[in-house]
Amino acid sequence: MASKRSRTPESEYEQAIQPYVPVIKRAESLAVKCTNRNSPVVVFAHGAGAPSTSEWMIRWKNLLASALNAVEVVTFNYPYINGRRKAAPKPEKLVGFHCDIVRKVAAKYPEHPLILAGKSMGSSCCLLGYPLKATNGVIRDELLLQLTVPIMFVQGGNDGFCPLESLEMVRKKLKAINALHVIANGDHSFQIAKKNLELTGMTHEEAEERAVEAVALFISQITSKKKVSVQ
Q: What top-level branch of life does the organism fall under (predicted)?
């Protein structure tokens, strides 16, 4: 009778991770392959209602850091978040503070591409849930029309603050190269109802991973000076 082969710690480890190998290989293949000098630094601003320490911001900070192979993803809080005032002031009153953060980060990493990202109100050039439509119905496109740097939109398909039809009209008028990734059935924070997830056979995590992959591809094309395909 043949004796059983002894199990070494190495073989036990290999067996334990075997189910995860396809996931690991897929993540590695989708990561942006950059040299140290070409790795971007990201300034990531929060939205009006939650600080940089919110669960959403932390999750997307990690997603961006991994997908972009970023040298650093810098988050911060606008001054009103740390004070007693809960309601966000008009965005134009926060521009100076935001610019100071950007200047400091650019000075710290002068040789790295600088990517500005933000959630909702904090949106910059990588716009995660841009609030195109105000509560009074006004379309907030004035700033977008002035931009000349590339713009990446990530929007929930069911986001009441950014009807896709309105966004398409604005995109046609933009001077800047731009692209759009839609999270199907996602709301303003990219949440997807359970019934819609079941219909697609996709998890919420997978939907967000596809979104950040689209961001990584767009930024890779920009930083490598390749032509960007616009959806």
A: Eukaryota
HEC readout, the chain: CCCCCCCCHHHHHHHHHHHHHHHHHHHHHHCCCCCCCCCCEEEEECCCCCCCCCHHHHHHHHHHHHHHCCCEEEEECCHHHHCCCCCCCCHHHCHHHHHHHHHHHHHHCCCCCEEEEEEHHHCCCEEECCCCECCCCCECCHHHHHCCCCEEEEEECCCCCCCHHHHHHHHHHCCCCEEEEEECCECCCCCECHHHHHHHCCCHHHHHHHHHHHHHHHHHHHHCCCCCCCC
User: Taking residues 97-122, what's their average pLDDT?
Assistant: 92
What pTM does this model have? 0.78
